[in-house]
Amino acid sequence: MSLAVRVIPCLDVDAGRVVKGVNFVDLRDAGDPVEMATVYDAEGADELTFLDITASSAARDTTYDVVSRTAEQVFIPLTVGGGVRTADDVDRLLRAGADKVGINTAAIGRPEVLSEITHRFGNQVLVLSVDARRSSEQPSGFEVTTHGGRQSVGLDAVAWVKEAVERGVGEVLLNSMDADGTKNGFDLEMIRAVRDVTQVPLVASGGAGRPEHFVEAVEAGADAVLAASVFHFGELTIGDVKNTLRAAGHDVR
């Protein structure tokens, strides 16, 4: 029995403001995260994802105050990532109002942290965030990057997802760095490759531009679809995406 498809707006936050660029560069201001979260909640978003996109590259903590203010205003699940390094960081974010916590860079440096987090809090709270791009140097054709896509770590993206799930990760947020912000569609080949190695919920991110793109991602194996700029700048609404998914025969929440 398949689960209903979730439609998730993503708030990429830098210095307390929502920003959006192309391939994580040329960032432009998109608004206040608390105000935007409130709007998406009212529009029928199934969840919100809040990513502090410069926390790891700047070696600082996620902005807990913004997380707390956002959580106070919305009544849908909130996933928070960026700068998460330890189980104690997860504890602080859960106390600030997060429902799930995403981890990326720190897990690559020390994979054991995944097991430490899931043993303490359960796998339902832990999301592996994977920023991947195409690479002929890796067996799957996709490599893992860190620090907002600025650094390659020489790790096969599909193999890394498989390992992380074995270590207890409960969900995977798969972001195509090549497609990010381009609005040319999700990397369907990447979605299929990851779907083939894991059964945990898979969230597709990177490249959404038209309602049909979300349908393609779901049919490639995504359980949830995430987008940022098309929602932030009013090009699409949550309703547009859900209606298109329904018309294609998919259950939505």
TrEMBL record:
Q: Name one GO cellular component term.
A: cytoplasm
Entry GO MF terms: imidazoleglycerol-phosphate synthase activity; lyase activity
Provide the active-site residues from the annotation: 12, 131
Q: Which domain of life is it from?
A: Bacteria
| Enzyme type, top EC level | lyase
Ordered alphabetically, the record's keywords are: Amino-acid biosynthesis, Cytoplasm, Histidine biosynthesis, Lyase
Which CDD domains does this chain map to? HisF
Q: Which Pfam families match?
A: His_biosynth
List the subcellular locations.
Cytoplasm
Pathways involved: Amino-acid biosynthesis; L-histidine biosynthesis; L-histidine from 5-phospho-alpha-D-ribose 1-diphosphate: step 5/9
Q: Which reaction does it catalyse?
A: 5-[(5-phospho-1-deoxy-D-ribulos-1-ylimino)methylamino]-1-(5-phospho-beta-D-ribosyl)imidazole-4-carboxamide + L-glutamine = D-erythro-1-(imidazol-4-yl)glycerol 3-phosphate + 5-amino-1-(5-phospho-beta-D-ribosyl)imidazole-4-carboxamide + L-glutamate + H(+)
Q: What is its EC number?
A: 4.3.2.10
One biological process term in Gene Ontology: L-histidine biosynthetic process
The record's function comment reads: IGPS catalyzes the conversion of PRFAR and glutamine to IGP, AICAR and glutamate. The HisF subunit catalyzes the cyclization activity that produces IGP and AICAR from PRFAR using the ammonia provided by the HisH subunit.
NCBIfam families linked: hisF (TIGR00735)
Family, as annotated: Belongs to the HisA/HisF family.
Question: Subunit structure of this entry?
Answer: Heterodimer of HisH and HisF.
Protein name, per record: Imidazole glycerol phosphate synthase subunit HisF
What organism does the UniProt record list as the source? Aeromicrobium terrae
What's the name of its gene?
hisF
